[in-house]
Amino acid sequence: MSQEIGTTKRTTSGGDPQATGSHAEPTAASIPRRRSLTPWLLLVLLVLIVAVIYGIFRRKQAASSLAGYTQANAAPAVSVAVPAVETSAQEIVLPGNVQAYTMAPIYARTTGYVKAWYYDIGAHVRRGDLLAVIETPELDQQLAQAKAELATATTNDRLAKVTAQRYQTLIGSHAVTQQNTDTAVDQLRADDTMVNSAEANMRRLQALQDFERVVAPFDGVITTRNIDTGQLITTTGSTVTAGAGTIPSNREIFDISRVDVLRVFVNVPQEYAPLARRGAAAVLTLPQYPGRSFRGTLVRTSDAIDPVMRTLLAEVDVRNADGELQPGSYAEVHLHVTDPVPVRIVPESALILLPDGEYVGTVDQSGRVRLVRITVGREMGTTAEVLTGLTDGEAVISNPPDSLTNGERVRVVASANNSMGEAR
After folding, report:
1. Triad 208, 213, 218: Cα angle to 5°
2. Residues 143, 206 contacting (CB under 8 angstroms)
3. Beta bridge partners of 318
4. Are 275 and 298 in contact (CB under 8 A)?
5. Which pLDDT does position 29 carry in this prediction?
6. What is the dotted CATH code of the domain comprising 92-100+258-336?
7. Intervals of CATH 2.40.420.20 along the chain
8. Topology (CATH level 3) of domain 138-209
């Protein structure tokens, strides 16, 4: 019995290891399997670390590239052009205003009705030609009255003269008193004054009557006619009430112009004023005569600079014997100067107007703007002349933005080195 008990204990203690539950010891076979998993875990962890580092590097690189791109594109884009040097500076082209050598608006000096007119616009007249006749019945009667008053004054003056002579003869014999003699002499003087006054009034009315005949003051062409037969013409001081068909005193009845020689007035910029000398040759071109030119001579200047326009007024005389040129026309005056003036041609858009003057922008090698103050000559619409401020080969910004400042960084996106030269 004791043997069975001992057998039972051994069996229980040496039975199935699973019967021991969680208190069983790990076996030798399970330990190598766990150790084999450790390198794979380390490899995965290393890959994750490398991926994280690479992602951070790429992100920093993208941020740096974006910052560089943003900084590069934040600067305004500009185009530059090299100004062309003007090679024909001995000729200055200026706009001119053609005017008649002599022009006279003719006004009526007497009140009356137009009896007749003899010349219309475009008619060539000679000095003294009768242009129109004005009927002045009231003036005619006033003149007749003045002549009668002059005759009366003359008669009274003649009688006073005889009386004064008699009194002066009789005073020696004491036949008349001194008082009567003095009265007669003073009366003679008064009558002489009345005669002079009556004569002056008659001559005034005769002069007004002469204005009934409107004549040409010089040789020329009629450019305006504002009268017609039967119209009433009033003058200053007239008691006639103006109405329909009445020509007031401030309106000319004819305009006459001398056109055999024409005056062409040009405003020479201040920079060229010393070159506009008397006797300089000039050539005129007009749009109505393409391909033709008319020669003239600079005859005089105002010898004073206009303080508003900063120009010198000059006059060029042109002979117009054929009458091809008309007063009031626009002309381009090609003025030949004696000294060449080197100028540089820049686009009109390159000019920057600041409170202290005009500037252009240039770009240095580092891409920064340098504003240069210049002196501008003629402005010709799309281009302008620069007299001072620029050096040879110095490019200017042809499209400066309004906010451009000195020292600002810009991007040059286009360069037109030959465009200005080709334009000239």
Report:
1. 110
2. yes
3. 262, 296
4. no
5. 52
6. 2.40.30.170
7. 77-87+342-423
8. Helix Hairpins (1.10.287)
Q: Which pair of structure tokens corresponds to residue 20?
A: 């021991």
Find where tokens 């210049």 sit: 374
Looking at the DSSP bridge assignments, the partners of residue 375 are 388
Do 378 and 91 meet the contact criterion of CB atoms below 8 Å apart? no
- Work out whether the CA dihedral 371, 372, 376, 382 comes out positive or negative: negative
Cβ-based neighbours of 192, under 8 Å, separated by 6 or more: 157
Encoding tokens for residue 192? 């002489």
Residue 298 and residue 314 in contact, taking contact as beta carbons nearer than 8 Å: yes
Structure confidence at residue 18 (pLDDT): 45
At 102, the amino acid letter reads T
The residues pairing with 317 across neighbouring beta strands, listed in sequence order, are 263, 297
β-pair partners for 234: none
The distance of Cα 244 from the centroid of its chain, to the nearest Å, equals 40
Domain with CATH 1.10.287.470 in the chain: 138-209
CATH class of 77-87+342-423: mainly beta
d(CA 180, CA 160) in angstroms, rounded, equals 13
Cα 91 from Cα 304, distance rounded (Å) = 22
Question: Rounded to the nearest 5°, which phi and psi values hold at 90?
Answer: -75, -10
The residues of the chain that CATH labels 2.40.50.100 are: 108-136+212-251
Fold of 108-136+212-251: OB fold (Dihydrolipoamide Acetyltransferase, E2P) (2.40.50)
**Three-state SS at 213:** strand
Cα(102)–Cα(317) distance, rounded to whole angstroms? Answer: 12
**How many C-beta atoms lie closer than 10 Å to residue 75's C-beta?**
15
Q: What is the block-wise mean pLDDT of the chain (424 residues), using blocks of 10 residues?
A: 42 44 50 64 81 82 68 71 71 89 91 93 94 91 92 92 87 83 89 93 90 93 92 69 59 92 93 85 93 93 90 94 91 78 81 86 84 81 82 83 82 62 41
Structure tokens at 63: 């941020």
**Residue 320 identity (one-letter amino acid):** N
